[in-house]
Amino acid sequence: MTIDYRQKIENSHVYDVAKKTPLEFQASLSARIDNRVLLKREDMQPVFSFKIRGAYNKMASLPADVLKRGVIAASAGNHAQGVAMSAKKLGCRAVIVMPTTTPAIKINAVRSYGAEIVLFGDSYSDSYVKALELEKTERLTFVHPYDDPDVIAGQGTIALEILERNPQPIEAIFCCVGGGGLLAGVAAYVKALRPEIKVIGVEAKDAEAMTESLKNGERVMLEQVGLFADGAAVKQVGEHTFALAQQYVDEMIVVDNDAICAAIKDVFEDTRSILEPAGALAVAGLKAYAERENLHGKTLIGIASGANMNFDRLRFVAERAEIGEKREAVLAVTIPEKPGAFKTFCNLLGNRNITEFNYRYADAKVAHIFVGVAIVDPTESAKLVADLQVQGLPALDLTDNEVAKLHLRHLVGGHAPQAENEVVFRFEFPEKPGALMKFLETMGHDWNISLFHYRNHGADFGRVLVGMQVPPSDSAEFNIFLDNLGYPYWDETQNPAYKLFLG
């Protein structure tokens, strides 16, 4: 039987718990990409995710006697909270099976709505199998996170609200894709009313189940998926969602983790809200599409699908956002190990803002530097590498090197027994162009810099660790240098951590 999704969506029961979220103009992002960008703020739902719509619509449509027995779901995230909150509103029992690896913050969020928690297995797949067992033994009704017509219809109410709020021309609507419930619901409704609007799904690079399925003409099962965008990390899309995507979705876009981090930052700059990685997929795809198609002056809508961000991921997001925005180049540069070479290298960087600097003395001939530099566009990094090469400083662009970005930036260093008479000081540099050159010019001596570490943390001053080879006979002159510099400093030469790992 063919389902009339337009009618099903318009008759959905979602607003007992869900709210009509704003469709907000993103001023900064719009100006930067020269298009009118609107954000559908599903991160503002009571459970900080669109999942409440589908869960409640499914449960509210159950017969009273079935609902009375209770429901069950398998989820480690947003769907679990949607089912739990819906059960509390409807006054029924809810059992949520979650992997044993689920963070305590998510378990507590689900439990706060009165749901019963069953921890089982190491993955969603394990929990799903357990939930199907309990569905039978406990006579509960399984609420699927995406592959159910009532769930799809509930998610489709987002499209209804978008078209109500914006009757003007729309170039495209972008949806994050995990199992495909959101994409299917939005596409079915938009194509029924405004078929000229493109509906585009966005997936993370290492979780491309819908992209691969549409390419192959059948649902594929991924062997493994990346978990950074865990809210959309699904190995196989649903039967219903795949069929609707085949019929209504215009195309799929795949983005990497750096692009997702950049999108989180974009949304933060406009809204001061922090989306979870899956919640920012639509914005990342929107930006990629606008750049690829060279669009200008078009209305593009991204669905901010969720904001259940694990706090411990914020450091990674901040670190990778500038690279994802193509505003930071990461380089490895080799300089001769001799006094003045470091200063020459810094002069070549000019007034560019240095975002990170890692260097440790290795041998008497050459030094290897790991440096992050703020850039305006990707072509600038290639020019910088060429300029360094011309000056006899071999350089390698590591901006797209995952090992360098994830690991080596934290591992540059080690013991340097050849660095005789080394003293180590911690400084606070003012976060402005020229601060490093002032340090080098004030030094005005041939003391060799044997260690240098700096990373921009977004404050008004930078924390810098510097090692220099200063003979005991120069100690008085060195103290004069420290006083004349005018930067706060601390002597760390006797620090046990330095002695253990670097001394």
Describe the structure.
The chain is of the alpha/beta class. It folds into three domains: 20-49 and 149-321, Rossmann fold; 55-142, Rossmann fold; 326-501, Biosynthetic Threonine Deaminase, Domain 3 (Biosynthetic Threonine Deaminase, domain 3, 3-Layer(aba) Sandwich). Helices cover 41% and strands 21% of the residues.
Low-confidence stretches: none
Work out the number of β strands.
18
CATH topology of the largest domain: Rossmann fold
Q: Helix content range of the residues, please?
A: 40-55%
Number of helices: 20
Please report the distance between the alpha carbons of the first and last residues.
74 Å
Mean pLDDT: 88
What characteristic shape results from the CA principal axes?
elongated
Beta-strand content estimate: 15-25%
Count of individual domains:
3
- CATH class annotation of the largest domain: Alpha Beta
Structural class: alpha/beta
CATH architecture of the largest domain: 3-Layer(aba) Sandwich
Strand order of the largest sheet: 14-11-13-12-16-17-15-18
Taking the sheet with the most strands, its summary is: 8 strands, antiparallel
- Radius of gyration (CA) equals 27 Å
